[in-house]
Write a structure and sequence with these properties.
This protein has about 260 residues and is an all-alpha fold. The protein contains twelve helices and no strands. α7 packs across α8. The radius of gyration is 20 Å and the shape is globular. The model has no long low-confidence stretch (mean pLDDT about 85).
Length: about 260
């Protein structure tokens, strides 16, 4: 069973090479760091003061995640998940896939595993981009000092782990929708509608029931969770719970669907 899963995963991973989803992960991971680097060159006169604060990495990491968490990350997850899932519909290869000696269980979960792995790849690229965009001005200009404090690896790892958990329910729900509908625009349209609803729900008393709000709520942090209706809510636990529920629901819908491609 394990060997079958590994072989299936390798096959699914090869399909993503040079696909729109792989380019989206690469460009999406580099986009904010490149913007921040360009902004550093534009505001060159104030860079020395920024790097001398002693809290450069923490502040810089927070600024990079501000744009990513509030909109770009959930939007990227919606697009990437839909693109990867729709590869079989786009290439009309579902029937070929079902002729291979693979169980439906293996097909379903290897595709999901590829999507989750690509999200991990995105996080890796994004964080490498943050680090490089932070030190490049120091390497190019002698008058810009290196940050005084060491790179907060543990803090940033924890920060990323939380955002990754917050993405899981979006991945699972988009996977469910993309498997159920052949039209790529339907899957993306539903995802964008949920994301738009999340932008309004984030200020709602019960906004935590909308899983598309979790990245936003995580970034807003104390500003939101100090309020009376959020202080006892663990959104990361809810994210994992939603992920499990959506994954089980997606699998049941997949195996009971009469026309599978």
């Amino acid at each position: 069973m394990a060997l079958s899963f590994v072989n299936s995963f390798q096959s699914e991973w090869l399909k993503t090479k040079r696909s729109a989803a792989s380019w989206l992960v690469l460009i999406g991971g580099c986009f904010i760091p490149l913007i921040m680097l360009a902004a550093a060159f534009v505001n060159f006169g104030s860079l020395k003061k920024v790097y001398d604060t002693g809290t450069f990495w923490q502040t810089y990491n927070t600024h990079c995640w501000q744009f990513m968490a509030l909109f770009l990350l959930p939007m990227g997850v919606i697009l990437a998940t839909s693109l990867i899932t729709q590869l079989e519909y786009k290439n009309n290869t579902w029937k070929q896939l079902y002729t291979t000696p693979q169980k439906l269980l293996t097909i379903f979960f290897t595709k999901l595993a590829v999507i989750v792995t690509m999200m991990l790849q995105f996080f890796l690229i994004f964080n490498i981009g943050i680090y490089l965009s932070g030190i490049i001005p120091c390497l190019l200009f002698r008058e810009i000092p290196f940050p005084k404090e060491p790179f907060p690896f543990i803090h940033i790892l924890q920060y990323n782990a939380e955002f990754f958990l917050d993405c899981l329910p979006v991945i699972a729900l988009q996977y469910l929708i993309s498997l159920h509908y052949k039209n790529f625009l339907v899957a993306v349209g539903v995802g964008m509608a949920f994301l738009l609803a999340a932008l309004f729900a984030v200020q709602w008393e019960y906004g935590y029931i909308v899983p598309y709000t979790y990245c936003m709520l995580n970034y807003l942090g104390k500003e939101v969770f100090e309020s009376s209706y959020f202080q006892h809510i663990n959104i990361h636990f809810l994210a994992v719970l939603y992920f499990v529920v959506f994954t089980i629901a997606g699998y049941i819908m997949y195996i009971t669907k009469k026309e599978k491609g």
